[in-house]
Amino acid sequence: MSATIAKQAPGLNSSSAVMALLHMRTFIALFLVLIFFSFAAPNFLSTANMVIMSKHVALNAFLAIGMTFVIITGGIDLSVGSIVGLCGMVAGGLIMNGLNLGPIGYTVYFNVIEVVLITLAVGVLIGALNGFLITRLNVAPFIATLGTLYVARGLALLSSDGRTFPNLVGNAELGTTGFPFLGSGLILGIPVSIWLLVIIGCAAAYIAMRTPLGRFIYAVGGNERAAALSGVRVNRVKMFVYMFSGFCAAIVGLIISSELVAAHPATGESFELNAIAAAVLGGTSMSGGRGRIGGTIVGAFVIGILSDGLVMMGVSSFWQIVIKGLVIIAAVVVDQFQRRLQQKLALQQQAAIGG
To answer: Average pLDDT of the chain?
Structure first.
């Protein structure tokens, strides 16, 4: 037995070393893009650019955190970009025009906190619609969220006939001022969006690693039928992840409209691609059952730095889309290679012990 183990040890050691590198691939990618753009792009590491880039990364990270939970369960959420646009329009419309109660001829205006809560509720409700379609009507996640992508984008356009809600500074007499602080304000010199990312990221990581709900999410993605037979309420878990994804998208819609002090119905187009790329690059398996919130956030940094660095280099936006697509493909290929290597390593270890 000892001879067999000794014989297999070099192979096991080399495979283990490769596995260690694969587990660290997101950090390696982050290091490489930082080094590359620090030389290729002028002023890339300047303080002003770091602040701007961190805000861009935060937007992508919010969506990617919600997407991570969805993908871990074996699903996908293509509607997050449209939810961003719709929620931005909801916030802009409430600040600009209030809520018109036509039958009684009265308009209700909400303060900023109420606007934020209503907007978050809209995001959660769209996520609940996705969950209902998937769990109750057995619609495939790809089709269900593709449908809500169009519905949410259409509602965003209808809310203003395709026009922008400009100058969302509010009206002091109506108590609607203070909205720009969410996107442009600083707390202890750090943008509000970064503080929100820390809070949401820590909460999501805690749920994933320390709560029964987190274990259920991984169980559903690993083997849905086995999870159901073990007593996991699969439909409730799926409802939660899609509602949480909608919640994260609503936050992004609020931050963007607040930072721009304007809401446009086309906001958020193709944001879902960045979210998926960040999640997959961070180690989340598209087949479900595996992923880490920390890895996703690092993946969001890679995608954000890549996007901003290419802009600073003057690379065409068309090429940027091509490069992001290649990043997604490469991340999936590496993930599949990691899965096969894990299976091979497990078989080698069993053979070594059995020998």
So the answer is: 87
